[in-house]
Design brief:
CNF1/YfiH-like putative cysteine hydrolases, 6-stranded mixed β-sheet, 261 residues, 6 helices, alpha+beta
Amino acid sequence: MPFAYQSEIKYYQFDSFKLPGVVHGIFTRHGGVSPAPWDSLNVGGLIGDARSNVVENRRRMFAALGRQVETLFDVWQVHSADVICTNAPRGLDQPHIKADAILTDRVSITLFMRFADCVPIFLYDPARKVVGMVHAGWQGTVKKVAGAAVRKMQEVYGSSPQDILAGIGPSISSDHYEVKEDVIGQVKAVFEADAPRVLVSYNGKTAFDLKHANRLILEESGVHQIEISDICTACHTEDWFSHRGDGGKTGRFGALLAIDG
């Protein structure tokens, strides 16, 4: 089963990441304190929910995985290809750095990101004991942020791509992700011969398959141990916050990843 439970909290786990030495979870919308339309485990702090709710929801996620919230490292996600390597948590009163991929080899740090349709990508190198988390919407995907994260793992930590495990988590599927000509043009320019594999036509419309695109990016980077969730956030708004599925009035679900001992 891909889901684990802690009281009312329900979270997704990759089978390939259920290993000694790594802790992870991608949290559904269940088990928090936020009211509608952010009900209930919302960790989006800039969408109208009360800060006290967001703080409590975040605490519950960390507690579910046995991590202290003071170990948190997160960033201001801006749909970039910027990658941050960190040796220390972000102080809870400290400003965020802008980036969309975060890496660490420290057991004292828990990587944390927020999502609502964009693709959560987890990376783990069991040989070098390095973890990474990537936020990839359409912009991050055409900028190949996942590939940038893999290169940074190689440069900074000495990782070999063939050792890296990757997980592509619950996110919007192609049948809910129609794109217009401006995006189509960028996808064609970046993916070239592979563009027909990631641009899906249906009912006279064109959609972007973000999961498949990020798989191709990882494979291009030399990563071939890739697990892909078949869960669509827009299809399952009973479990997930979805920007498109909820018409823009929704929360953000959280994802945590850490080295454990």
